[in-house]
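Tutorial handout. Part one gives the primary structure; part two gives the three-dimensional structure as tokens.
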Amino acid sequence: MKLTDILTAECVKVPLEAKTKEAAITELIDLLNANGTLSDRDVMLRAVLEREQTRTTGIGHGLAVPHGKAHGCNHLVMAVGKPAEPIDFQSIDKQPVQVVVLLASPPDQTGPHIQALARISRLMTMEKFRTAMFKAGSAEELYGIIAGHEG
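Part two.
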């Protein structure tokens, strides 16, 4: 799976205005909704926030991957944001988050959802990739970094 199969340049935002994890999740859901990828914004937002309450999606290394499955979208979609200032996501390594990758999918697409989570996790183990993402100064640059690592 290529992340650029589920991520469009229009669904990348630098900088995010959010200062909290709930605000970051909401801002990315609104970005997906504004780009016509959600069938029900409120249902999807609720699903992602409920998932976040069960266990943090701040996976460490400055990354959070909030995600949810609900009937608020018809296929797996992704949004990426880089907050202006790092956000406390109650990450497992206690470090603030510098990049937020949000995944939303319908309940019946578990396989692609898990594949996307695995792909993101693999990329984030690469220090050069993380550093490039953290330094990205624009949405175009951040999208290009992701697309450039799909080879």
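Part three, for discussion. The helical segments are 21-34, 41-54, 110-124, 127-135, 139-148. The chain is about 40% helix and 20% strand.
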